[in-house]
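Progress against Task 2.4 (sequence-to-structure conversion) is shown through the following example record, which the project officer requested during the mid-term review.
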Amino acid sequence: MEFANLPHWKFYARLIPAKDRRFVLAYLRWLKLLALRGTHRKPVHAKTFNYLYRAVSREWSAHTLLGNLQKEFIARNLSLSLLLELLDGFEWLSENRYTLSFVKASPIALQIISPLARLVAILNNQRPPFYQPFASLIFAYAIVYILNSPDLQQILAQSLLQTNPAALKKQLPLLLNDAKQVLSVITGFCFKLKVAFYMGFCRRLIQKNANHTENNINFLDSVNAFLYGLWYMLIIRDNTRGLNKL
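Structure tokens generated for the chain above:
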């Protein structure tokens, strides 16, 4: 699937501790498996998702995807709800029979994104206030990739989700504004700096889409993202005072 010169997913791997990246890759494979069924790119029948719900609770060999994930979840003391909640969103998508705008379906999209945001938070030792604004940042990135992938737009259209470019571009600044709040609640300077960079990078991609320019990312774009992230970290500094007392 082409994304018009946008970065490969490995570009975002810096948000995950190195020791956990293989685990997160397996989690993304689970997400992809569900997405293929949620969008009917793989055969789906009436009980497909019922079987998947049961499969999560059944013990599997570590050589299988689910077995590997179960082993990793137990080792990290993680709740299997992070696997099950993805099922809820994709099951709804697979059963949708009405044409909806992608923006109006955003609660379902966030239901799929939220477990991923929580996983990133847990692996980086972040607190619950991190989840919602970081999910908004992931959602903003998702929209940018949708805008730049005719193939993905077609897949969503087959699931009766309309991707109106004007409506999506209008949504982007709102999501980014919500996402900025995450910098007020992040613990750990290095991780805050990483998130601030990706915040600035998302802002740069939004600007390029708004101006109908190509997404040819260069060194200056990365510098711009880094400086914007630093600037925003400074202007929200006062907002973080007293959070350690909550």
